[in-house]
Amino acid sequence: MNISNSRRIVIKIGSALIAPDQDGCRARYLLTIAQFIVRCRAMGKEVVLVSSGSVAAGSHLFPEDAKNSSVVLKKAMAAAGQTEMMATWDRFFDFPSAQILLTHGDLRDLERYNSIRETVFTLLEHGILPIINENDAVTTDELKVGDNDNLSAMVAAAADADVLLMCSDVDGLYDKNPNLHEDASLIPQVSEISEDIYAMAGCATSQVGTGGMKTKIEAAEKATSHGISTYIVNGFKESTFEKLLAGENPGTVFLPYDEPMHAQQHWMTHTASEQGEIIVEHGYAEDLKDHAEPLAAENISHVQGEFSVGDTVLVRTEKGERLAKATTNYSSCLLNFLAEQEQTSDNGHLQESIGPVISGQDIAMLEKS
Ligand SMILES: Nc1ncnc2c1ncn2[C@@H]1O[C@H](COP(=O)(O)OP(=O)(O)O)[C@@H](O)[C@H]1O
Ligand SMILES: N[C@@H](CCC(=O)OP(=O)(O)O)C(=O)O
């Protein structure tokens, strides 16, 4: 899938494009991108914008030495800069735009995840451009995504997009950092994201970037597993967007999985956070590596953490090998109770009435790490 034959596109814009001088938002590079968005919509495509830049836009309101500041000041910068960033985008369009601020806490809660989907779909139905950013002002270490590359991939999956465009300050993924190596070569296409691909990615070197190339590859892994064609392109070049509209690849394209994960499995694998752990016995662990099958209480060695029915849990071995993430049908309290009962009576009848601890279709196998 490319831009010319796509239906719904998520475009991620990095900080360096919004606030290139780290001195408030600048239209310098945004006009071309705004025109691209307008042309996509005129072609009948739906667009969702994930925009970084609130911290970079707000930093000039604080003392110069605050730029490498504490988390608290960065949150204040984000809150102040978000207003400026939204106003900057809104000035380019003669159609309305809408602000959506998210944390990972929102995305990993299935009820809130579905609520986000409903809001995005409703905005798109009414011709309103959703502009999404991480809610830096309220997020915490435990709740945050931390970079808009991964956020844009989660948004693309939630929005059922068919293309994710990550616009950066380089042409695409190179075999090594092009800002540090003159002999770096651009990689036009990635059909499988392997450890070798990750090994090429260094960190951000711009003054304002957060994610670097590693987070873009993580994002590509999330999006392609959901069947989304993912591009890393140079947002600073006008030619980038002309080529995209012509159906060409101006940067690096990550090809989508031939057999994408089902939506629920994708959400569990890439967005949900495990609320606890179920440690399984060796026999079940070995069977699970072949195929996902229901988990019964007798296959459980023990549980860790506290979780409720319907929560996402990690299924792992005694040695810590992460096997799968799954939706549990039993709370940790009930599983611990069953474990105590096992010594005294047969609780098989209880399981017959409730069913398996984990149903086969609620298991998302994890890639061997
Ligand atoms: N293998 C690589 N290919 C391309 N860029 C790389 C690579 N490794 C590290 N980088 C760095 O990643 C930067 C892009 O990430 P980042 O600064 O976070 O951009 P953005 O703000 O657009 O997300 C590039 O400017 C480059 O310095
Ligand atoms: N929520 C942050 C996003 C930070 C971020 O991911 O920046 P970048 O690596 O430039 O896309 C902000 O608006 O500054």
TrEMBL record:
It comes from the Bacteria. Keywords: Amino-acid biosynthesis, ATP-binding, Cytoplasm, Kinase, Nucleotide-binding, Proline biosynthesis, Transferase. One of its GO terms (biological process) is L-proline biosynthetic process. ATP binds at residues 12, 168-169, 210-216. One of its GO terms (molecular function) is ATP binding. It is found in: Cytoplasm. One of its GO terms (cellular component) is cytosol. Residues 276-332 form the PUA domain. Its EC number is 2.7.2.11. Belongs to the glutamate 5-kinase family. This is Glutamate 5-kinase. It comes from Pseudoalteromonas holothuriae.
